[in-house]
Amino acid sequence: MIWTELDTWIVVTGALTAMACAVPGVFLLLNKQSMLGDAISHAVLPGLAIGFLVSGTRDPLPMLIGAVLAGLFTGVVSGVIERRGRVETGASLGVVFCSLFALGLILIRIAADHVDLDPGCVLYGALELAVIDSAPVPRIVWQSGAILFLNLALAAVFFKELQLAAFDPRFAKASGIPSGWIHQGLTIVTALTTVVAFESVGSILVIAMLIVPGATAMLLSRRVAGVLLWSLVVALCSAVLGHLLAISVGPAWLGWLTGHNDLGSLSSAGMMAASAGGIFFTFLAASRLVQRFLPSLQKRTL
What we know:
Largest sheet: none
Order of helices and strands: HHHHHHHHHHHH
């Protein structure tokens, strides 16, 4: 394995993106709205495509506006379907994001004929290509770092409001905290984060970055601040481990399994998502062992 400067930027970009996604992902989990992150990551595709078609370029502003509007549309329409259609939250989100995702795929295909746009990169990401830049620090690194800083700043400023809106929305409303606006703001932040993550990890893999670090952190801590901190650690470890597996162990193992020793590196974004899942199942198994053999440790808060 030969480590280059490109590998460093891949890990840095992946880590920043994963941590940026983990911050809103924690509060989506606490609000029991993990499916909303899935819905938004799929439903913003029509907004992206419309932004491409209207502007005729890959300028980020139309893409951002279209994605945010699509994310808000997802949250509002799914709520209307849940109330008027008398279906559960998951079913209403499923109806909306499946429909919008299908529409987005069609529009992305149309946009690809008019704009320099690869539908595969939109869906699966192109982390290895996103870091190639003539500047000393690739543009995607600045973007990922900026959205991470924004998410952390918003989480710090509205930490109390986010906690109350997640655990006791009635008390939050009685205290004058607009829980509805908090949820809408969380939807907007998730849509913004998803748009930035598209270029590196794509629409599909961003779901893992939104949910898995937070789900793992909830196995390690019972406090919101602890969950948030651990989710950042898990996201960082997933990025580093994922890229190492993508350029070393993964190709070697697949080469041995298939009999082809000339396989190149695997997708770093895909291995980062797989590593996040592996970390989750490792801690899940460990927690089960602790509950079975060391019940006294269940009361400890990490």
